[in-house]
Amino acid sequence: MRDQSPDKIKVEETIFHKVRYDRQFQWQDIKHIAFEDEDEIRIEYNEGWHDENNGMDAHFVCSITRMVEETDEEFAERQRQLKRDEDWARDRRYQSYLKLKKEFENDNI
Q1: Rounded Cα distance, 66 and 40, in Å
Q2: Is the pTM of this model over 0.70?
Q3: Per the CB 3.0–4.6 Å rule, which of 41, 67, 76, 77 could disulfide with 10?
Q4: 60 and 44 in contact (C-beta within 8 Å)?
Q5: Are 62 and 43 in contact (CB under 8 A)?
Q6: H or E segment to which residue 88 belongs
Q7: DSSP alpha helix (H) spans, 39-71
């Protein structure tokens, strides 16, 4: 669900992503990064697979993400999308209202 905050929010940004086929990741591969306390470091091993038409060799993946404040452009886009969602929901409620009104307007209770 989209965050409906009227203020800027923190969003996840990938600051490093690399795939290695030759060896595991070592400190020398990531020591150049200026880490922050809340950075998330994920190192995964994916086994290779092959079939008659496709395949992928075994490999290691390293991904580092950081929570950063959304940019002005991201904030503006999120607010536009929230407005579109609100307008869409209002239209759907109005269409439901019209159907119910038609169904019950001649009903004498």
Answers
A1: 7
A2: no
A3: 67
A4: yes
A5: yes
A6: helix 72-104
A7: none
Q: Which residue from 67, 63, 49 is spatially nearest to 12, judged by alpha carbons?
A: 67
Q: Are 58 and 44 in contact (CB under 8 A)?
A: no
Residue position matching structure tokens 């020398």 = 28
User: What pLDDT band is residue 109 in, cutting at 50, 70 and 90?
Assistant: low
Non-local (6+) Cβ contacts of 56 within 8 A are 46, 48, 49, 50
Return the residue matching tokens 């965050």. 3
Q: How far apart are CA 36 and CA 26, in angstroms?
A: 19
Q: Using pLDDT thresholds of 50, 70 and 90, give the confidence band for residue 104.
A: confident
In the three-class reduction of DSSP (H, G, I as helix; E, B as strand; rest coil), residue 20 is classed as strand
3-state DSSP: the chain helix, strand, coil percent, rounded to 5?
A: 35, 30, 35
Q: For 82-98, write each residue's pLDDT tens digit.
A: 999 999 999 999 999 99
Distance of CA 74 to the CA centre of its chain: 13
3-state secondary structure of 89: helix
